[in-house]
Please model this.
Amino acid sequence: MDQIDRKILEALQRDASIRNVNLAERVGLAPSSCLRRVRNLWEKGIITRAVVLTDGEKMGRNLKAIVSVKLFDHGNEAIRDWMSALNAERAVSQVYSVSGETDAVVILTLAHMKEFQQLSQRLFAGNPNVIQFITQFVLEEHKFELAH
Model:
């Protein structure tokens, strides 16, 4: 990967809907060369997917929570079952296994507090593998970037 590929990735991470001709102009390439490079980035698995980000407030999902979770059983089957339950939930936007005092961090994007209460009972309080969970609600978002 060279500097031009990095410029292409930077532009696509800011706006994946950019037209190839505009992308080529931005990075200083002919459109055919730019398209070839973008296809190559996909084929190499450097670009893994393109997504559309939505405005949580306009979508009615503007309550964000960060949940730190301690688990009892760290076996593959127990973790797989819990992760499967998390993956099935629309409100779960991110899940990380982490080091330190907790085992996982779960990011929730919710419509309202009642949804959180129902979800926390189902995924955390009602799950025998969850020893403890601590929830922090996001008061204000200062930076949200998905680009690397």
